[in-house]
């Protein structure tokens, strides 16, 4: 991307590209973005180079919008600045979300590995850092990232919502379903233990891990393994009786359990799955992050 490119021109171009895909942002979102562009112009931020140079010094209220523009416009040149901004706790999560948009970035991977290894080795890990890693890791596909996510999922001293998120993101790492590896065996053990934990996030995340490990899309034809047959009685019990809404999700644990039973028995995710079966239902699980 040309450093002298106008942010306004790039933004207009992005709107046209999205319109060509039959997608348009909510009017309120577009209005906020246009207002943020005008505020950036008043601060002398007009081009890509201006944005990268001024990002660390922008007014507090405008800084978050500027970070979001980096993601919206896919400004890869800003990645080093974003990585530095992760040291600021109030910006850490919004930066992590934007970093997740940039795939196959070695600087992002190395920064997340360094932070994750540091926090997991600490006597009192900073949960906001581990949360940021689970968000940003979509930009990475690296065994070291998988190890950090798995350790986060395994650790019972960490909050359940964080462990559930780590379990979910762990399944985005390639090679995790290789049954010959220690990583797979640890995932299996953690998921089986997680089914019996009290925390809803961990139980939901553990069911998703089991479903993902037994229904990999690259198996053609689908392959049925017996590694998780021992979980079927527990899953059938959840499917029959546990109708609590999973935190932050749109369907109860029983519906997820029914899907995972199908994964184990057939090697494929049932269609329609729980997300589609519960589409349109107004109930929502409580979103807890404490």
Brief digest:
With 290 residues, the chain is mostly helical. It has 15 helices and no strands. The chain has two domains: 7-73, no CATH class; 141-277, no CATH class.
Structural overview:
With 290 residues, the protein is mainly alpha-helical. The protein folds into two domains: 7-73, no CATH class; 141-277, no CATH class. Helix content is 58%, strand content 0%. The protein contains 15 helices and no strands. Helix 7 (106-121) runs parallel beside helix 9 (143-154). The relative contact order is 0.07.
List the keywords.
290 residues; mainly alpha; 2 domains; globular
Question: How do the strands and helices of this protein lay out in sequence?
Answer:
Layout: H1 7-20, H2 27-42, H3 48-54, H4 60-72, H5 79-85, H6 92-99, H7 106-121, H8 127-136, H9 143-154, H10 160-170, H11 182-194, H12 200-213, H13 232-241, H14 253-266, H15 274-277
| Overall pLDDT | 91
For the record, the count of structural domains works out to: 2
Instruction: Calculate Rg over CA atoms.
Output: 21 Å
Structural class: mainly alpha
Instruction: Categorize the overall geometry.
Output: globular
Kindly report the oligomeric state of this protein: single chain
The biggest sheet, with number of strands, parallel, antiparallel or mixed sense and barrel status, is: none
Give the proportion of residues in helices: 55-70%
Tell me the strand percentage band.
under 5%
Order of helices and strands: HHHHHHHHHHHHHHH
How many DSSP E strands?
0
